[in-house]
Design a protein that fits this description.
two-stranded antiparallel ribbon; de novo design (two linked rop proteins); globular; alpha+beta; 125 residues
Length: 125
């Protein structure tokens, strides 16, 4: 993850306005999904999502309650006795609750949205 500060200066009604935009680049590789439901692809997506969740859990800027919820999501994604679709659905539900927390840092909210998007690519069948 890289964060860059991009300054913006423009003129509006003879006033010069300067602002700084914080731009966050987060890369999560998208795995192509077969219509038949490729299990290795789902496993790779889950593994990648666990890595991002671990990064959230280790971030000291994230409030403790959100780190605990992220730990809960990780344990759900790591269960071997549950199907990938059920893991994804359960994790998405918790991630949706976390992302609505008003105390969550913006960069963490973006990570959570990206993880939820990745989990939505897992086929249900």
């Amino acid at each position: 993850m890289s964060i860059t500060y991009v300054p913006h200066t423009f003129k509006y009604n003879d006033h010069i306005i300067t602002s700084q935009l914080i731009k966050t680049n987060i890369v999560i590789n998208l795995f192509p999904r077969n219509m038949g439901g490729d299990s290795t692809t789902a496993e790779n997506v889950l593994k990648q999502c666990v890595e991002v969740i671990e990064r959230i859990m280790s971030d000291d800027a994230v409030p403790r309650n959100i780190r605990r919820s992220a730990e809960n999501v990780k344990s759900i994604l790591m269960k071997e006795s549950t199907s990938e679709a059920i893991k994804a659905a359960s994790a998405i539900s918790i991630l949706d609750e976390i992302s609505n927390d008003p105390n969550i840092p913006l960069h963490t909210r973006t990570l959570i949205w990206n993880v939820a998007s990745q989990l939505e690519t897992i086929p249900v069948a």
